[in-house]
Fold this protein.
Amino acid sequence: MSATAPLVELRGVSRRYPGVRALEQVGLELRAGEVHALCGSNGAGKSTLVRLLGGVERPDEGELRVAGQPVSFASPIEALRAGIAVVHQETHLVPQLSVAENLFLGRELRRGWRLDWPAMRARARTSLAQLGLELDVDRKAATLTAALAQLVAIARALDLDARVLVLDEPTSSLDASEVERLFALVRRLRERGLAIVFVGHSLEQVEAISDTITVLRDGRRVGTHRARELSREQLVASMLGRELASATRGAARIGGGAEFLAARGLGRRGAIEPFDLAFQPGMVVGLAGLLGSGRSELARALFAADRPDQGAWFVDGAERRLSGPRDAIERGLAFCSENRKLDGIFPSLTVAENIAIASQRHRSRWGLFSRGEADGLARASIERFRIACSGPEQPVGTLSGGNQQKVLLSRALTLEPRLVILDEPTRGIDVGAKAEVEQLVEQLAARGTAVLFISSALEEVLRHAGRVLVLRDRRVVATLEGAQLDAQEILRRIAGDARDG
Amino acid sequence: MRSTWLSSWRATALALALLLLAGALRHPGFLSFGTLLDALDDGAVLGLAALGAMVVMSSGGIDLSPGAVVALASISVASLVQSGLPPPLAFALAIGGGALLGGLAGWLIDVLAMPAFIVTLGAMFLARGLALAIHVEALPIDAAAWGPWSRVELPLGLDLAACAWLALAGLLALAYRHARTLRNALALGGDERTATYFGVPVRTTRVRVHALGGAFAGLAGVAYTLYTGKGDSTACVGLELDAIAAAVIGGTALRGGEAAVFGTVLGALLLGLLQTLLVFEGVPGAGWTRLVLGLLLLAFVALRRLLAGRVEAGA
């Protein structure tokens, strides 16, 4: 198989966004009749690579070759014409249009002055039938399940005579039987000689479907392997470990004193299986697992940001029902979201306003909040966290990612919480800022604040955590402490090779 | 699409029927062929503007300029005809000007990645300013060439503008089925990202959609001139909001992705007949009309929301 010339080839491709190197000198070869999996954690560069292949974006450096010829796609339609069809994650179809309308959107069949709807409907039926789908082609896309919408999107790609089919996280919203159906289809397409790119997080799925695996990390290609020559553990190690060999155990913050917060059997259907978790002052608990393993879901359930549907919290030994984030904050929890931009910072507000916003309720008098006090608070934080900004009045949106993260941390800490949940606090920020954020974790623990630390970088988790919960498939599969805390062991648990427990 | 049209204009047609029934019960002379014809004649300006508004809304946009464009078109036609230009040429220039202004707004929205709301607000001031620069007040047309245009008799006694309105509505409905640009407009309004990924030429579509909206506004201005026999640079302030209201009552979703051509025609008729009925009732002033319109609009939005909720639950 690998003897054939590649259908599509990327050579030394780089893509940068302001302050981020999304892709750095990446090469990739896609061959006919081969399923090529792209693996990597958050921010590894998978999505960027998919956007380049699909003509949504163009590389800053390097070249893209189709059938040996260098090409440059000005728009997605040019990529389609070159035979590369991308089924993007979560954006499959236009909801208000029918199945047939979606299938032929942008390339409707004509007859004379008008569009030939009878012909399009007939051809839509045929191409869906080829995928084993019997579907009313006049049905609106909005009424389809995610799985069906995705299959229709694939049918569209095939009807375009695509030779390369890129599936960006196609299984993220499918159940097990739908995944099986999709994989059966992918295998059939592989036999028909298509080159297929599969982006996914589940190791089982990657193993089940792929012939070749390329691992990306921090925008670079770590390696490309034949799937059967790569053990699951090696795969996890190359995805997660930056310098795992040299990963050092840190202070191993296990804390001390009475448990002030515990979660017993807390869970939320479809998000995270019931888990137990307890915190003592000064304890750092790490969460390890791949993307989609349920790390953020666990954190959000603990913070009551997504209301758990079972289990309970115990605050200072007494059972409590946290009704939402406000209640959680009241009980001494603080949460720094993994998605700064989406539900963290208020970009157009100033540094001072962003920091003060969480504590307004406590510090205001008669609903009024002293601006001087906010400024004072901000100045203290700027100094303490070394936030690089012109002053408390600078809008947060204009700061670098690392400094935005520090503003977010400052806000969480103004309330003097007993537990801080840090979800991917080091993602997308530069090395210096990473070191400072990590230092802060240590400071917090030393002062007796408990920390729940979530990171895709295993060595960071190992450096700080006194206890590590390993997650896989939305379940806590292991709780490791003391001597068990070691990189190989965690990798083994993530890969699922060892007995659970 | 067919099911969408049905569900969207059905409620509007029902409301229209109820309004006619109420009028007929209270005023023997209300429900007559004459009243209906008058409603069509009186409704052409709003009806044409509402179609334009609907086109832009179906692509997920919004246009605040139609009222001002109507005024600009009408004052342009009046002053051009007064200065000796043949009326058909003046009409063409007014419609073309509307399309040009609309197209420019669409292009700016795309290039600057600015909200349509702001860009078309700018276009609104621009058009109103141009209209006032041409002539500061009403300009009656008394040129000899205008004579035959001042009263064009068509079958059934309908005005030219009303005929154009209904004919164009028919064409537009057909075009939503058969013209690529309008297919693409629906996709754009439905989900811009997916449309982009599917290879829909976003910028071209946006420019054309806004140009079409502008052309309808220009045509509404011509209709205004035909109807009143004058140009007026201060006319139709706020007409764009009535047009949006008519489109929404007709079943156009503000978020885009769906077209409601017949519903929008019915919506414009409904607004016109509402006004007529209130006149029959002897309700003084425009205040009551606006108040009832407001209630009606809110009722329709709420109704649609409830229906949509039921559709989702049933799916």
Notes: Chain A touches chain B through 31 residues (CB under 8 Å).
